[in-house]
Fold these 2 entries.
Entry 1:
Amino acid sequence: MLSKRLHAVYKFIEERSIISDVGTDHAKLPCFVVSSGLSSKAYAIDIKEGPLLQALKTIEAQALQDKVIPILSDGISHLPSDCNAVTICGLGWLTCEDILMNDIQSLYKLDYVIVQLNKDYHLLRKWISDHHFTIVDEEIIYDGHYYIIIKFNTDYHESYSDLQILLGPVLMQKRTPLFIEYLEYLLLNLKEIIVNVPNDSEVYNNMQKEIQIICSILGK
């Protein structure tokens, strides 16, 4: 079984897509993609042998050796030719950025990319915006922590606004109860942190802007 977090990623994967799960988490996601019948094949990619050996154990335990292929690789620079989508889950933004920038041309060969960071979602959206890519979908879930899943492709899109980068264009459009709960959580955190920030600093000014933006959305 997948965690609630990984299952949210799974729901963004399109039927018959052949994914490469980069930085694979014990190959749980690619194994589930195949065993559920969503796709006939998947790849589990990691740069380190240790995690890849753990992935292989998961694959063998489910007798999926001929359908889930483990690959020792540094990311997206050597994707299999039949791979048409990439998932990147549970990593920090800097590691994710390294993966995406390592061979950015490879992204243009994909139908879509799904990313689930542990935090700093706005930095991913800023990167997407700077490259004029398109945010296709977003979802927020709570699994002991708020997680946001972002699906994007390389279709051209005008730069996103600061508000869209901060909170997510699709999330704002969906405006689910959980998203509102998440905004309340962000607002509380910002108010707790800002009291210890010098009020003549750029950080303070940026935080004040974020507080004002969130308050306006919440109608406060």
Entry 2:
Amino acid sequence: MPNQTHDYGDLLVTLTSEYDLMWNDRGSNADDDGSFWHPKTQDEKKLRPLGSVAVGNYDDINKQQATLLVGANPNSGGTPAVASPVGYTLMWTDHGSGADNDGSFWRPNAPSGYVSLGDVVQKGYDTPPVDRVWCLRADLAADARHSDYHVWYDRHSGANQDVSVWAIEPSGTAVTGSESIPIIAGTFLSSKTYSPPANVVLAVPALQVKNNYQKFNTPVPQIGKDYIPYEGEVYNLQEQCRITLPFISFFPPTDRRALDKISDPFCAVNRSIAWYVEAVYENRTGGTIDRSETVKSGVSKEVSEEMTQKAGIQISAKYGTKLSNYGISLNYQFSYSKTSKFTEFQEHELTEKFTVPEYSATVLFGQHIWMNASRADGSAVMAQIDFNANSDMHLSGVNLT
């Protein structure tokens, strides 16, 4: 059964945890252990990886790690999102290494208008077939960086050539975010030295997610004497936005909980807002009553940390809403307009003083926000937080006679 897919504009996306072992350095006496795997394609090779996967050990990664597969959205017109490479450039072979098996590293040559996002490892020394990977349309790629430390290098392997292998990672985004959300592809680039790759463009896929944010324009509820609301009651709950992304946007590719449900490898985050009853005061006497109510608003450090730990999302007044992995901003999707100010998340206390007239009831309303992270199919809630949106409180009253 193929894994579920999701459309991101012209790009079709899923994840896989199934691989073929292409080569490892057993027997080479290299300082590092390394093995190289190629993700299995899906749907008769319509969904392919963007390169091979490198790990710094000999462990079998089948069912232990997820990697991105991409393809062209069949419902899109125009230039396809992906194209096969037109050939390969040889980067390295293990000639002279003494490794138990022969292996070679190759770089896909992208056709015009497309980019290669990772190297390909081949059993033996023959050129890989061009249907092994996809190249990505250039406008669907985002700038990336190499890992701080190499995944593997062949030092002391005895190979005729030097090589080091570096993971490709998203380089983050501006705090305002954009329609393009970078995502790790699980690929690597090789270098013909023990230093990081030089004079080469590093890129990762960028998933296109539009802004569908809905403003909350509902007026403050008006109460009647026949029904007085209770504290904590919710009025006019409205979902403002929702995004769906592969779980590797939120969690490491090795996350066990997510891997166990890889048949539908997506997670969703949504934000809802409503009028919330902060306090209710009834005065059934013949005189006025003076009252005050202190209301806390914003997101506390403890609540933010809980969301980060359980759902991989960071929420703060400084950065707004972002994916904790690689600092990818979601503010474009979670704001009505492009902004770098997120005062609704700022912790604050407001004391509202008011007078309850004789024989009347007064209700204090505030805008309340809920943020929910769950499996995209709704099967499990990973984390949910709620908080008062800001210090904007409103009073609604009714005569009880």
